């Protein structure tokens, strides 16, 4: 929970820490110039975490605050923007901003490469599921539609990027994974380095599929689903899968219309399906692009 909060509000937290550290240094330390190098650390962190633009902006912000303190109170020397002060602060500020620019640029290049890799393996998974489902005409494209719907619902519920990635992959593979447990074992041991984005996503997807495979054995009229210790991604996947499945014809019933399927899902809210997931479905299903797709 704490990690999720920090990642979501990283920029605001970093700005607050910069201001707080500057106030602490200004009030507690006499030789303030000795601590100017301290500000390289948060600028490097800003570049790595949020990219070039935020890092450069943070650098300008820090430099402006330091110049203001020097002009009004002094940073261990006579107050004012004297020649000696500027000869010290201008090169320091320039290198600080340059550091943010370089680190941010490298981080953005790394993120772009990871995005290309992610798109490549997502495309591979989509082709795989499409090929598997093509054996049954009524199933063709089902997993892809579930994945798109689940991802949109997850975004509506403000899931983190990693959670959305796990959910999308789990939705793409949910039909195969729930039917054949060997897929879960393969995903779990496919990549062992947890620092690799693909590895985390595959392992996360395997956990979601494993829990979803027992979903309908757990939920029902006897339990309030909100009280069950179940990941929100599993609840979202259940709603998305059921909604798309209802819109497919079977030998025993015709296909539901989009709004009839939504009404059917809403009947199970609180028991079979989580209320927040149903609410997200209602929002996503009512969007103009969803209406055009139907």
How is this structure best described in words?
The protein has 294 residues and is an all-alpha fold. It has two domains: 2-108, no CATH class; 134-293, Hypothetical protein af1432 (Orthogonal Bundle), CATH 1.10.3210. It contains 14 helices and no strands. Mean pLDDT is 79; it is low at 192-196.
CATH class of the largest domain: Mainly Alpha
- What's the CATH H-level homologous superfamily of the largest domain? Hypothetical protein af1432
Give the helix/strand class.
Answer: mainly alpha
Task: Report the β-strand fraction as a percent range.
Answer: under 5%
Give the proportion of residues in helices: over 70%
CATH architecture of the largest domain: Orthogonal Bundle
Order of helices and strands: HHHHHHHHHHHHHH
The largest pleated sheet is described as: none
Structure annotation, total helices: 14
**Structural Rg:** 26 Å
- The CATH topology of the largest domain turns out to be Hypothetical protein af1432
Q: Into how many domains do the coordinates divide?
A: 2
Question: Distance between the terminal alpha carbons, to the nearest Å?
Answer: 37 Å
Low-pLDDT regions: 192-196
Query: Based on the structure, what is the oligomeric state of the protein chains?
Result: single chain
């Amino acid at each position: 929970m704490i990690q999720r909060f920090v990642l979501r509000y990283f920029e605001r937290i970093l700005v607050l820490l910069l201001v707080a550290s500057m106030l602490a240094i200004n009030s507690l330390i006499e030789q303030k110039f000795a601590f100017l190098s301290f500000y390289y650390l948060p600028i490097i962190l800003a570049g790595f975490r949020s990219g070039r633009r935020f890092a450069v902006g943070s650098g300008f912000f820090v430099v402006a605050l330091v110049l203001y303190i020097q002009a009004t109170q002094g940073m261990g020397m006579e107050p004012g923007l004297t020649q000696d002060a500027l000869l010290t602060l201008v090169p320091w500020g320039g290198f600080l901003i340059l550091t943010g620019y370089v680190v941010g640029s490298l981080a953005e290049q790394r993120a772009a490469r990871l995005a290309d890799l992610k798109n490549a393996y997502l495309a591979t998974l989509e082709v795989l599921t499409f090929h598997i489902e093509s054996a049954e005409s009524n199933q063709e494209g089902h997993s892809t539609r579930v994945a798109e719907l689940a991802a949109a619902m997850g975004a509506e519920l403000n899931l983190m990027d990693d959670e959305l990635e796990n959910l999308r992959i789990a939705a793409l593979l949910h039909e195969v994974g729930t039917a054949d447990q060997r897929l879960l074992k393969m995903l779990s041991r496919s990549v062992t380095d947890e620092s690799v984005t693909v590895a985390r996503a595959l392992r996360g997807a395997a956990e979601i599929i494993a829990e979803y495979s027992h979903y309908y054995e757990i939920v029902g009229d006897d339990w309030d689903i909100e009280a069950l210790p179940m990941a929100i991604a599993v609840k979202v996947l259940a709603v998305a899968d059921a909604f798309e499945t209802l819109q497919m014809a079977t030998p025993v019933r015709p296909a539901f219309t989009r709004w009839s399927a939504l009404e059917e899902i809403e009947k199970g809210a609180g028991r079979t399906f989580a209320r927040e997931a149903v609410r997200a479905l209602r929002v996503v299903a009512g969007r103009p692009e969803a209406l055009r797709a139907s």
